[in-house]
């Protein structure tokens, strides 16, 4: 695994300025380029060409998504990007929904053409970590990957497999930017060293 597509889903909106997500996107760029990875980058809010983005998915061994959690989901610019780019990937990223009258054993969601490709989420939330992990708190112990279940299923539909998610917490109420950056560097080292060895 040597080719990575880095997607920055930061957006200035309301009380969010997008600075931490852009910082983490830049940290990934610096860290992984120094580690010898070949990179392509897109800042979604700056605009993009859908065909070029599809080609970048086809080129990449893995995709890193950087975005804040907004209203328990991805920002609308990230959802719009996925709707446009993945739909345009029909015939290259996925063939169909997988089912076939001639082969009734084939199940829904098995028509992806991106097998072997991987993706990783790096996300920022004002919610504390325990809000995700404690069954008695807001997310009922489902964890960040449970919150992003539809996002993961969209990528599984393509045939992609996920890498461990990175989450920064308390980013407004109690920010610890330097510690977050160091933790993210360590996460990238661990995840991509393991991915390269696999």
UniProtKB/TrEMBL annotation:
Its cofactor is FAD. Pfam families: Flavodoxin_2. Keywords: FAD, Flavoprotein. Residues 11-187 form the Flavodoxin-like fold domain. Belongs to the oxidoreductase MdaB family. This is NADPH quinone reductase MdaB. It comes from Novacetimonas pomaceti. The lineage of its organism: Bacteria, Pseudomonadati, Pseudomonadota, Alphaproteobacteria, Acetobacterales.
């Amino acid at each position: 695994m040597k080719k990575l597509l880095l997607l920055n889903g930061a957006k200035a909106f309301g009380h969010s300025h997008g600075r931490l997500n852009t910082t983490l996107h830049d940290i990934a760029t610096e860290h992984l380029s120094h580690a010898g990875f070949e990179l392509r980058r897109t800042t979604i809010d700056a605009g993009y060409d859908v065909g070029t983005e599809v080609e970048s998915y086809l080129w990449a061994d893995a995709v890193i998504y950087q975005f804040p959690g907004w209203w328990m989901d991805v920002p609308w610019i990230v959802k719009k990007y996925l709707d446009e780019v993945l739909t345009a990937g029909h015939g290259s990223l996925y063939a169909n929904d997988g089912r076939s009258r001639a082969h009734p054993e084939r199940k829904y969601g098995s028509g992806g053409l991106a097998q072997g490709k991987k993706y990783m989420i790096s996300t920022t939330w004002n919610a504390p970590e325990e809000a995700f992990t404690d069954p008695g708190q807001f997310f009922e112990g489902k964890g960040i990957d449970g919150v992003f279940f539809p996002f993961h299923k969209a990528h599984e539909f393509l045939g992609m497999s996920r890498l461990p998610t990175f989450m920064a917490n308390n980013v407004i109420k109690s920010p610890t930017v330097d510690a977050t950056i160091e933790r993210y560097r360590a996460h990238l080292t661990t995840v991509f060293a393991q991915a390269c060895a696999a």
